[in-house]
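Practice set, problem 2.
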Amino acid sequence: MMPAGTASGTDSDTWEQQCPLCGQSNGCAVAQGLPAAQCWCMTAEIDPQALQRLAPAERGQRCICPACGRAEPAQPNPGD
């Protein structure tokens, strides 16, 4: 996650608020200057495979969006 507190309207702000996987808004509360506790990711189950899709240099530095981070519900096994 990127630290908050950058000046509004900069390329850095866009980078912080953009999902590195799909390019859409990541909805990051911290990038919007809000407390981390208000971020969508604090109460969501994040798909570990989605995080693995991040470039190594972006892991722990960039926030993905809810759509890309959504853990898919387990599918029933057709043989059950």
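Problem 2, part (b): a different protein.
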Amino acid sequence: MTKFDPRDRKIKILATLGPASRDPDMIARLVKSGADAFRVNMSHGEHEAHAETIAEIRKLEAKIGRPIGILCDLQGPKLRVGKFKDGKAVIPHGRHFTLDRRDEPGDETRVQLPHPELFGLLEKGQRLLVDDGKIRLRVIRAGEDEILCSAEVGGVISDRKGVNVPDAEIPIPALTEKDRRDLAFAVEHKADWIALSFVQRPEDVAEARRLMGGYGALMAKIEKPMAIRHLDAILELSDGIMVARGDLGVELNPEEVPPLQKRIVEQARAAGKPVVVATQMLESMIESPAPTRAEVSDVANAVYDGADAVMLSAETAAGQWPQEAVTIMDRIANQVEKDPGYVRRIRLTGVEPDATTSDALAAACSSIASTLRIAAITVFTASGSSARRVARERPSVPLLVLTPSTTTARRLALLWGVHAVRTKDIGSFEEMIGKGKRMTLRHGMGKAGGRIVVLAGVPFGTPGATNLLHVVNLQGNELDGYEDPSSDD
């Protein structure tokens, strides 16, 4: 295995691949610039193209010897209007506008709404937001065939624009037929994470997990106000959470999103599950080689909140400056994490460990690292559970995770502070200590005279059996006779 130096930062970068970035050379440049994992957006493109993208990521992964996470993001049940006679129309401010079930091209007075579940559901006074809220309609009268609205904010409306309904829980499943096909594709191609869009209820998460058949980790995207009401239950059923601020920012008032983002990050951290902050983080870099000051502050705030990862969407998928966007996000994160107040701030939301041996030892790792001069925390894990527990504590030193599972190593690409290495399993205490010391030295996380904390479980190789913590001194000569990294793979 080729050595790949650990990142200098703890937070991870998730970059979306698309037309601007899916060729092999650009993927490699994005990883070199700081991308830890890649998002494949199933809303766009064909399965054949996505399969080629995933294959290129895996080729690069094998070449550099570093696990790279892949997240397949399902489109979800996006509501859209129908088509117009001329491809678009202008709705004047204050005028009436009707959404109906007629399969005819629309005009400035009406358009088809091809979602029968909405008719008879909406009530007077509720809002309909079109094209990310650029057009705002208020329901005057809702019937079985027509929804008469007043255009509080009019403007140009064009074919197939999205519709958000913030004031009602829509009785549609979170998985469309397209999503089911895309989910099957993601499982077949061994995606590490599958993101579920427009989650409203815990049942949505349970259905997706059933269809995954035990493979992959499930990330629930929080982008509907209804999901906030069920956040605890959704979090419990999910493996991770994404704060998807695009649609969330449309359906809520803008000023409501920042405190909600902090609340979601805090709850996910308390549960020890990865949380990703996404959408419009460096939006101006779709066209500009430099971000705005406000965007820099937005990314910095997510880092200060202790999020596990920050995500780039169109900036890397379709923008003119994909590599620069990753580079700048990496620079922002590094600068924040060098702030003397950073560690204190991310621990403000710390929680008491659960009354289990595993949680107690994970908390002890962080405490020891803060008390003694510790170079790194080295964790042996098969499932990744021990790594999540330690990362939840946001320790001040690097976190080296050793696992025999390639799948686990890849999933941990979105976990705060983790440098994951796939290595052979261990069978004894002596082997654990020896390998822990060698791997720490090999990956540049310690040097002669330093100390590390080693965390594992006995019997070795048993998931969920974390019960052993040991502080180890590094002599510096542990790699003698192990010059070939593959000998310790």
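Answer key, part (b): The two ends are 7 Å apart (CA to CA). The chain has a mean pLDDT of 93.
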